[in-house]
Amino acid sequence: MSSPEILYMVVPCYNEEEVLPETSKRLKEKYQSLIERKLISPLSRVVFVNDGSKDKTWSMIQELHSSDPEFFSGINLAHNAGHQNAVLAGLMTVKDICDMAITMDADLQDDINTIDAMVEKYYEGNQVVYGVRSARDTDTFFKRFTAEGFYKFMKVMGADVVYNHADFRLMSKVVLKELANFKEVNLFLRGMVPLIGYQSCSVYYERAERFAGESKYPLKKMLAFAVNGITSFSVKPLKLITSVGIIMSILSLVAIIWSVVAKIGGFSELGWSSTMCSIWLIGGLQLLALGIIGEYVGKIYAEVKQRPRFIIADFINDPDNK
Ligand code: UDP
Ligand code: MG
Question: What is the SS3 assignment for the chain?
Fold first, then answer.
């Protein structure tokens, strides 16, 4: 192997003061062993992206940086931009100073020991290495059920994502450069990266429980994320509306013929129930259809404005400080 390459870890943090000391400690140990094994260059860094936290997260990152400037870097976003935007902010900041970057959650749910395998797979020629959960034993039944349902539903809806892979992945500089060309505002990284292509593979790990603190993804946010993922990657819901419309038209044709026959035959009733039912059904379906179309229109609205996806207030880093 030629000389070891530079690895940057991008770790988004939103109110993570409880986990940061442990996460930084474990990452440091991991890096030291990787550097000793000559798998990564000593110029490798860990970049914590503070996503507008309300607690002490940013001052902790600043402390980490001043105590160990050759190892810990930090990006401070001007406001809470959301997990996906925070990850992208980190990746876009490091894309020109690293050879490969790994994105990982701050809460230690992603197994740090998988990093070795990811880096090895990178040297084998993979430009993207997906971290895939082999088991979900530590998740609550509810989380597991909703999360697995999410992946299946995504597939049915036409958005191709790697099953049970979240945002724990390695990407090479080449892929990061391509990712920079995706200008969309509605970010859904796990759908975008497979679109880039290049040689990729998966490594498997057991997802641990959150080390401390609470999930920043309550059900409401998770549902919004799922809807975003589907509508960002597939127009299948729009096609579904057409199919339902066709089926309804055929059914109504049958109903019309039936009513005419009933009228002529003289056995027609007043038909209150059937009228009521159809009004509610048609009204409901129309609103649903409008809602789905509205979802896409809203996306177009957000896209045409082309607002910045994140705003970086500070970047503390000493890439060449050996
Ligand atoms: N996160 C973020 N911005 C947000 C919400 C979350 O940067 O607005 C970060 C959070 O600090 C963590 C990662 O995204 O590092 C994943 O969040 P979390 O662990 O709460 O989600 P879960 O694992 O429960 O789905
Ligand atoms: Mg988590």
Answer: CCCCECEEEEEEECCCCCCHHHHHHHHHHHHHHHHHCCCECCCCEEEEEECCCCCCHHHHHHHHHHHCCCCEEEEEECCCCCHHHHHHHHHHHHCCCCCEEEECCCCCCCCCCHHHHHHHHHHCCCCEEEEEEEECCCCCHHHHHHHHHHHHHHHHCCCCCCCCEEEEEEEEHHHHHHHCCCCCCCCCHHHHHHHHCCCEEEEEEECCCCCCCCCCCCHHHHHHHHHHHHHHHCCHHHHHHHHHHHHHHHHHHHHHHHHHHHHHHCCCCCCHHHHHHHHHHHHHHHHHHHHHHHHHHHHHHHHHHCCCCCCEEEEECCCCCC
